[in-house]
Write a structure and sequence with these properties.
Layout: H1 8-15, H2 29-42, H3 46-57, H4 65-69
Helix pairs in contact: 2-3
Length: 99
C-alpha cells in the first residue's frame, strides 16, 4: 500500500499550530530591512518576526486605559467634585477673553 503523499499544501498544517490568516502589509524600507535582517540572523521566517513583534505590542492592550494614562490625569483636590455634571461650571466657556 503506497504511503500518503505530503505535498506543500499539506505542510502548513504541520508548521502552524492554529489556523492562520494571510495579510499583506506595506512597510517602509528601513522596517522591512530590519525585519529581514532579524529573520536571517535568527534563521526564522520574516512572518515569525512580524508575529512576535505584533504580540509584544499587544501587551499594552492587556493593561487598562487608566494604567496607561494615569500620569496624565490631574490629581487636584481643589477642582469641584461635580465638574463633569454641573453645567454652571461652563458659564463663560467659549466667550472671547479680553486681555
Amino acid at each position: 500500500m503506497p504511503s500518503p503523499i505530503c505535498g506543500i499544501a499539506l505542510l502548513h498544517a504541520l508548521y502552524y499550530h492554529s489556523l492562520m490568516k494571510t495579510m499583506t502589509v506595506k512597510l517602509p524600507e528601513h522596517l522591512a530591512t530590519e525585519i529581514e535582517a532579524a529573520a536571517k540572523a535568527r534563521k526564522i521566517s520574516k512572518s515569525e518576526i512580524v508575529r512576535e513583534r505584533l504580540e509584544q505590542g499587544s501587551t499594552h492592550s492587556r493593561t487598562s486605559l487608566w494604567t496607561r494614562m494615569e500620569d496624565l490625569v490631574i490629581d487636584d483636590d481643589s477642582l469641584p467634585q461635580d465638574l463633569s455634571s454641573n453645567k454652571t461650571h461652563l458659564d463663560g466657556y467659549g466667550a472671547s477673553r479680553s486681555d
